[in-house]
Recover the amino acids of this structure.
């Protein structure tokens, strides 16, 4: 049986191990472990890559989201619109600040927030009318009285959300848009890089991400000078002129020097790796289109996915996953339960059926191995394994 990695970080490391070791040695030599020169160098290079004025390196993608909300003073009574088909961090940060996530269903073809549903959700919150769109409710069932403040679209699986209509709605209703590009960095929307598509963007360098470090890490992006200044302040306990001058409440949320040193050579090879991810995805899709009963990922005109995940939708997911496992093909489910149905969000009193597209997706999606070092022979083996695993009954 073939042994296939879901993500092959070792193959990448082999290419750049010497540079990584050299950079780590340089940090050990200069000893500036906190906000050392590698952090600034990496921030400058990543800002250039994303095409924004400011990149602020932080401790992880969750802190990046939290900081973007903190910088805008989001708190109790505020509504933040986001998708229920995402990792918990996207909504968790909203709740940690005492604000309320208002979930909005996704587009069935892209799995990203549906701008038409978003327009309805904004109106429903403004009017306090759950007949227009499902809303979070109090224990007695009455909708929570909230003020619309922000939107967090997620670039799920590496594909940017549909920002033109989202930004138009944001302008109309004076809402702040935070692009959650934890999975999206390296994706493109109409010629612009992911991370640059909202008023602020965030990403994660969790090791399995398209651009990952060897621990936790993240970044914030913006073109707004004043906002960038606030981000830099929040990441060091709300510092003013120095960390003992505290002009606001902040966090300890700095990107580690060692992680920046590791990210520098990784960023150098990132554009080539993005190309390789396109090769893998295109070969998967070309082969899998032959199995008529599964849905391959859709990339809208003018967009590029960075393929953080290559995700299929099938009817009998368990059967297919079992058959793939027997052939040595690892798979994973992102995400098996929408956030509005998670126990952590029982207090918002959403119910099954509120977001049918998200719920159907969570019942039927699974992801295949995806990384830039997947060779064509292995891709073809996986394609063959998926097609032969499709239950014949689905054709009837
Ligand atoms: C969509 C999304 N948002 C936020 C995060 C949080 O990033 P981190 O794990 O770096 O805190 C993740 C990480 O998996 C994610 O996938």
């Amino acid at each position: 049986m073939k042994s296939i990695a879901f993500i092959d970080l070792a193959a990448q490391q082999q290419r750049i191990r010497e540079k990584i070791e050299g950079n780590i040695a340089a940090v050990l030599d200069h000893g500036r472990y906190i906000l050392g020169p590698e952090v600034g160098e990496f921030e400058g290079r990543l800002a250039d890559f994303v095409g924004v004025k400011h990149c602020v390196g932080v401790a992880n993608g969750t802190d990046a989201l939290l900081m973007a909300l903190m910088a805008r003073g989001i708190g109790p009574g505020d509504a933040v619109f986001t998708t229920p088909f995402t990792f918990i961090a996207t909504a968790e940060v909203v709740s940690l600040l005492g604000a309320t996530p208002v979930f909005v269903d996704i587009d069935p073809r892209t799995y990203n927030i549906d701008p038409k549903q978003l327009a309805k959700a904004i109106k429903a919150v403004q009017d306090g009318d759950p007949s227009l769109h499902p809303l979070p409710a109090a224990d007695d069932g009455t909708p929570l009285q909230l003020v619309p403040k922000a939107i967090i679209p997620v670039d799920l699986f590496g594909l940017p959300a549909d920002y033109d209509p989202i930004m138009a709605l944001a302008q109309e209703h004076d809402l702040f848009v935070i692009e959650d590009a934890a999975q999206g960095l390296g994706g493109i929307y109409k010629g612009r890089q992911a991370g640059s598509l909202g008023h602020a963007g965030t990403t994660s360098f969790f090791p399995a991400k398209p651009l990952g470090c060897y621990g936790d890490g993240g970044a914030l992006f913006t073109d707004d000078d004043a906002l960038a200044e606030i981000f830099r302040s929040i990441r060091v306990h709300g510092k003013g002129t120095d960390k003992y001058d505290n002009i606001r409440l902040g966090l300890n949320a700095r990107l580690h020097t060692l992680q920046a040193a590791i990210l520098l050579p990784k960023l150098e090879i990132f554009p080539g790796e993005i190309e390789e991810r396109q090769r893998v995805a295109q070969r998967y899709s070309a082969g899998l289109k032959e199995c008529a009963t599964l849905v391959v990922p859709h990339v809208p005109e003018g967009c590029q996915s960075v393929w953080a995940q290559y995700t299929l939708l099938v009817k009998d997911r368990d059967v297919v996953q079992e058959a793939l496992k027997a052939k040595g093909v690892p798979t994973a489910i992102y995400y098996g339960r929408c956030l509005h149905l998670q126990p952590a969000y029982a207090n918002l009193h959403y119910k099954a059926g509120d977001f049918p597209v998200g719920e159907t997706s969570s019942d039927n999606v699974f992801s295949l191995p995806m990384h830039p070092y997947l060779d064509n022979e292995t891709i073809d083996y996986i394609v063959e394994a998926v097609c032969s695993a499709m239950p014949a009954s689905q054709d009837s």
